[in-house]
User: What shape does this take?
Amino acid sequence: MYKCNEITDKLAKAIDYALKRVDERTVGLLERARAEETNRRAIWALDQILENDRIAAESDCYPCQDTGIAMLFVTLGSEATFDGDLAAALEEGVRRGYAEARKSIADPLTRVNTRDNTPAVVYHDVVKGDKLGVSFLAKGAGSENMGGVRMLTPSKGRQGIIDAVVGVVGEAGANPCPPVLLGVGVGGTMDKACVLSKRALLRPCGQAHSDPSVAALEADILSAVNALGIGVQGLGGNHTALACAVETCPTHIGSLPVAVTIQCHSVRHAEIIF
Assistant: This one.
């Protein structure tokens, strides 16, 4: 049986830690981009980003003032039991994890702030056994506002998927603080594709899909996006995006949904296994 107070405590500590440190794999991608970049202005911007991330980690402060909306992806065993309310325990974990961070969550109509960064956006996957795991993603508004969904017809095919992603990123321009990471969901329904695009960002940054055909699509999307020349902070160069992760799902024979979630380079996430 899982103890809800322990779930709250572990989640809160993981969130607080994650918010103050850019994912180390993303830092590695930024360093590689710095080594490969030839545009002087982009090199200067990458140096500033890397210095910012170093200072944040060393001084235990936030690398970006937008600490985002908390997204929780919960893997829940069908046989798991709890000594209380799991949903309440997760919300309290978010509340405590954001105790020192900026409070960014507000009613969509009145714009009144909830003052504790709750509620979180929570998705559940029910699996066999008694496992409990939570993946946390901090999703800032600057990049989130630049995402998009394209409801394609099947005839658009593979190239249509690539063109859709390039179109979304091209329209976003410098707004999501490039270099970015791209989460792409293909298939399902409109809403399913959006969730897939978020889940794609949980994969270790820069890790290719296990299916070679999907991995090849990821590589082609990344190449096409970087050919746009938007570059780091919109200053030009070859690194508009650092990586692209695609997740797919069977879809209706008459549909080809493509969702694009853009994540800025300030990637903050954590995986908690209880």
